[in-house]
Every structure is written in C-alpha cells, then in structure tokens.
Amino acid sequence: MPRIPPRVPPLRAALLDLAAGIGMAGPALMVLHSYDSRPVWMTVTVVLLLAVAVIVWVLWRRSGQRSRTAAVAFAVVATATMALGNGSLFYGIVWAACLVLGVTFARGLVLWAYAAGLVALVVVLHLGAGSSVETTYTEAIGAAVLAGIAAAVGVVLRDSLRVGDALHDALTRLDEANAELRRRIGADRDLVLAHERERTARDLHDDLGHRLTAIGLSLDYAARVDDRDAAQDELARARALVGQTLDAMRRLVRAMHPVELGALRDAEAFHAVADAFRGTGIDIRVSVEGDDAALPREHSLLLLRFVQEGLTNVVRHANATSVRLRVEAGADGVEAVIQDDGGRVAGEDGHAEGFGLRSLRSRAESLGGRFEAGPETDGFRVGIALPRVSTVPAPAGGPA
C-alpha cells in the first residue's frame, strides 16, 4: 500500500502558492518582453501552457496536495514551458514543479529523477540547436546546479511535512487516548458511586430500617395495650430508639458528607476530613509528622481517599469510641495509619475487604506502595505506604 503524503499546513500551502506564482510569472514576463521577436505560434503556445499550469495547480491544491496525476501534469507542463523559453526566468516554473513533486510523492526517487531529466533536456536542446560545446557544458552545469538545489529544497520540504504530519497524528492519538481515559475515569466514578449507593442502601435497610420498624411496633403496642404503665414504658423505649436512630442517621450523614478541600495543603486536608467525622461522636485524633507538600498529586489524592474510606469504615462497621490517624512523611515516602479501639459490628467479617479497601490496595500497589488491613488485640488497623515517586515501571510501548 503506497504511503500517503503528509498534509500541508495552511502557512506552507500559502508559501507554495507564492512559489508557484513567482515561477509562472517569469515565463509570463518573458512572453510580454519578447513577443515581437518570437514566432507567434511559440508565444501562443507558452501562454496556453501557462494557462494549463494554473488550472492544474488549482486542481492539485484542491486535492489537498495529494493528487499524483495533477502533480505529474504540472511537472510536464512546466518542463514544456521551460523547453520553449530562452531565458533564466523560465527556470522558475520547474522550481515550482520540484516542490510539487516533493510534496506529493513520498519517495525521493521521483523528485531526483525529474531533476536529472531536466539536466538531460537542457543538453539535448542545446545539441539540437547546434550550440557550442562550451555553451552546452556551461548550460548543463547551471541546469544541474539549479535542478539540484530545487530537488534539495523539495526533499527538505517533504521531510519537514512528514515530521509535522507525524506530530499531528501523535497529538491526535494522544487526544483520543485522553478522551478514552476520561471516559474510563467517568465509568469508574459511576461504578464507585453505584457501590457506595448500594452500601448506603444496605446500611439504611439493616440498621435504620430495623430501628424504625421497632419504633413502629412499640407505638402500635402502646396504642393497643390497656395497662397505662406498660404503655408508658413502651413509649419510653420508643423515644429512646428514636434518639438512637437520629444518632445513627447523623453518623451516616457525617460519614458521607463531602469535604470541600479547595486549596488546603495535605496536612490541613487530613484535619478537615477528621473534623467532618467528629460529629459522629467518635474521638478522632490526628498527628502529621514531616513535610508532605512535595507529594505528587496522585499520591495526595490517594491518601485523602484512604483517610475518608478508613474513617467511614470505622463509623459504619466498628463499635469504636476513639480513632487515631497518624501520618508520617519522610524523604523516601509517606505512611498513614488509622487505628480504632472497637471491634467489628456483629455479623461483619473483620478480615474481609470490601470494595473500598480492595480499591485502595489496588491503587497503592499501582503506585509502588503497599496497603494492609486487619484486626488487632484492641481494635482494627489499616495502613498505607507510598513512595515519593512511583516505582512501578511505565508500560512498554507498542510492538516494534
């Protein structure tokens, strides 16, 4: 399959138009200057050739500078125009032909063959006209120099366009990859939200739903029982359940409340997250040691996600009264630990990792870090350690 020639940027296309205009203006000026000393048929032929050259040039430009037929036709017309002329200004149009061939054909053989053909044509024309050997030799050398320079300019233009085209394609692929990455991030975000909603719905059903059901049964019993004291006791239990339900609802809302981090530094952000959870009634203590300001953005976001997920799990799944968040930033990396003093809620498996913890583990390992979670004698502990710079090698490129 033939290689597709590169696209010509608008500025370079305008320069090509200028070169072609100058190249065709030379023969036109020579015709005006010497029309009275040349045969009429030759003058008319050159004028017609110039008109055809303009038409072919327009067709070549409208093809996006890719029509090989138009390029070859322009080169033929330019060569015929030069052959009928007798002056240096007639060489301008073959310069334009070299540029056209250089842009249109990816292989340089076509361009250099045309340049060699121009030199051979000059020699043949002088020999046919009976020129002296010195004149023929001098004209051949001049034609070779001019054709060589024109071909070299055509090659440089072709190579520069090829590099620009490759850069354009690379940027296009990069934009497509960026769009695909954004699409996947959006899909992952939707998946995380779906899991979060599912977990929230389960908590509402299992905890708040049962509490509200118990309150309803208590009120129903109090309305039906004839014993006033028993009704009062049942109403007291219902009132206590209402208070407990409100506390549970506040804890759930606090755990899900997003923290507006804005332009906070990482250490301030950790304190802001902890403050959002203190309304749950749990004593949360935060200690940050070292400077974490130099962490990459991706590492900082993962640390915040770790703190939010860890504290959320404590609120939802642990009977804890106090939590300690410790962050230590050193020269090699940063380590964060969340440790509570409570056991798991009845029915919860303290060793099982839910979606949130599995996601944290996967992201930590992808950055060259580690993640751990497990019970201790006096509570539960989750920890994450990240290097200053990701130690995971970048994926290899495509096949060679």
From TrEMBL:
It is an enzyme of class 2 (transferase). Residues 196-261 form the Signal transduction histidine kinase subgroup 3 dimerisation and phosphoacceptor domain. The keyword Nucleus does not apply. The chain crosses the membrane at residues 12-35, 41-60, 72-103, 109-128, 140-157. Its EC number is 2.7.13.3. CDD domains: HATPase_UhpB-NarQ-NarX-like. It comes from the Bacteria. Keywords: ATP-binding, Kinase, Membrane, Nucleotide-binding, Phosphoprotein, Transferase, Transmembrane, Transmembrane helix, Two-component regulatory system. Gene3D superfamilies: 1.20.5.1930, Histidine kinase-like ATPase, C-terminal domain. It catalyses: ATP + protein L-histidine = ADP + protein N-phospho-L-histidine. PANTHER family: NITRATE/NITRITE SENSOR PROTEIN NARX-RELATED, NITRATE_NITRITE SENSOR PROTEIN NARQ. This is histidine kinase. The lineage of its organism: Bacteria, Bacillati, Actinomycetota, Actinomycetes, Micrococcales.
